[in-house]
């Protein structure tokens, strides 16, 4: 459970990185170049995050429904992920950023699960930021899988949340959920963990998203009055 006190530091920000394809199409470029530009935005935002009070950053890179996109575009995105892991791991390690990948691994192309495991192992010591990248991820499938693991056992929110996170000890609710690209929907991302997340939607296409956009979202978040179903603690009310 998060308290109202850790409001401004160690924030868990989750981002639905949408709009790569439209960004490219508007420029008369192939959609694959939009995805490539999206990787550069990932690097920018990841490196800006620790300085803006973000402790955990969960990025939606590829949804379980994205397998429905054309095969060459899917192959291109998988190639970008492979390249990201190859080029970025040492840099993440140097910057104290720990990388995890969430989502299914059994449908990824050959070699990619091993590359993910290596990157996770190499960055395990990072303490400045926990970067979680969601690949072949579906919140509903994750919830179903956790329910399956629970069997008939008693279900508290805590216990279920632990099952949902698998082995990830950094199990946290989302504080701020950002979606770029102009759509205002969740598209099956972190449905359980975002129960009390503040939502921030921006028309900025993901390849254009930068540290200033993150700062704007964080400033918006800081102005929100989070009540978690109760009353605002700052309102000076006394208990009856
Ligand atoms: C976001 O870009 C990345 C993925 C979904 C993999 P899109 O591919 O959804 O781009 P748009 O929404 O068509 O612009
Ligand atoms: C959500 O975006 C998934 C990612 C950004 C990875 P989509 O573009 O796949 O979602 P919809 O189709 O607009 O809902
Ligand atoms: Mg999209």
From TrEMBL:
Gene3D superfamilies: Decaprenyl diphosphate synthase-like. Pfam families: Prenyltransf. It is an enzyme of class 2 (transferase). It comes from the Bacteria. Binds 2 magnesium ions per subunit. Catalyzes the condensation of isopentenyl diphosphate (IPP) with allylic pyrophosphates generating different type of terpenoids. Belongs to the UPP synthase family. This is Isoprenyl transferase. It comes from Methylobacterium iners.
């Amino acid at each position: 459970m998060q308290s109202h006190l850790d409001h401004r530091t160690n924030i868990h920000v989750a981002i639905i990185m949408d709009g790569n394809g439209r960004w490219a199409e508007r420029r008369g470029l192939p959609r694959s170049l939009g995805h490539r530009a999206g990787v550069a935005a990932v690097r920018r935002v990841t490196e800006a995050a620790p300085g803006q009070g973000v402790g955990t950053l969960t990025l939606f890179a590829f949804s379980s429904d994205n397998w429905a996109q054309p095969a060459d575009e899917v192959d291109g995105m998988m190639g970008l992920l492979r390249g990201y892991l190859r080029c970025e791991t040492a840099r993440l390690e140097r910057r104290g950023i720990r990388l995890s990948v969430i989502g299914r691994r059994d449908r990824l192309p050959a070699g990619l699960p091993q590359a993910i495991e290596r990157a996770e192992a190499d960055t395990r010591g990072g303490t400045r930021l926990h970067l979680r990248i969601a690949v072949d991820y579906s919140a509903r499938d994750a919830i179903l899988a956790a329910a399956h693991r629970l069997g008939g056992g008693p279900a508290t929110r805590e216990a279920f949340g632990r099952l949902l996170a698998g082995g990830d000890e950094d199990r946290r609710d989302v504080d701020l959920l950002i979606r770029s690209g102009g759509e205002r929907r969740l598209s099956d991302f972190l449905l359980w963990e975002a129960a009390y997340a503040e939502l921030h939607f921006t028309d900025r296409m993901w390849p254009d998203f930068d540290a200033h956009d993150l700062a704007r979202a964080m400033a918006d978040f800081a102005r929100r009055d989070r009540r978690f179903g109760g009353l605002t603690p700052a309102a000076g009310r006394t208990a009856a």
